[in-house]
Design a protein that fits this description.
With about 220 residues, the chain is an alpha/beta fold. It has eight helices and seven strands; from the N terminus they run αααβαβαβαβαβαββ. About 40% of the residues lie in helices and about 20% in strands. A hairpin with a 5-residue loop joins strand 6 and strand 7. The longest helix is centred in the N-terminal third of the chain and has 14 residues.
Length: about 220
Amino acid sequence: MPKSAWLSEELHAYIVAHGTEPDAVQQSLIEETAKLGGISMMQIAPEQGTFMTLLVRALGAKRVLEVGTFTGYSALCIARALPDDGELLCCDVSDEWTSIGKPYWEKAGVAHKIDLKIAPAVETLAALPEDESWDMAFIDADKPNYPNYFEAILPRLKPNGVILVDNVLWSGNVAKPDADDDNTKAIRAFNKKVADDPRVEAAIIPLGDGITLLRKK
């Protein structure tokens, strides 16, 4: 099922089929997550995973932060693109959900690159050294905290480093005047914040449920 509200199932299937498709381990994790029911929609779309793998490789990223790991598909996509001595620090609060992904990280041979911290991400990020030592970050967690994650990560990101932020279109609700739930309002506020921020360049990409691509100047 497409996560993009503007894509038909047929067009989504075409997009996935004409990019690099998930390998056997990734597909197995997708299927395992689908067993959770409706909440499985929290998993990034396959085409997002492909995009993230390509981006990590194109940037030559070695150290990556992830806020919001869920069942580990995005972490798998990132980690497989890192060099063997690369590092992915995953921040999540659920041992139950992240434990689903761990066996697949092992099967893919990337578990040694992943450091999973089960704690509020704001606390994990605040405890990191403040030097600019990270190449890339991915934010996909509770929407009202997006500004807090962004502000915690940006000073620790190298110049020209990249932040990806998921769900920034929120099924298209950000552009609907009558949509006023807390998550929609939070995402609208975050989108305006980063668009106006002189420290970064920003572009919203209509991939999945919308990804903002930010470059630190």
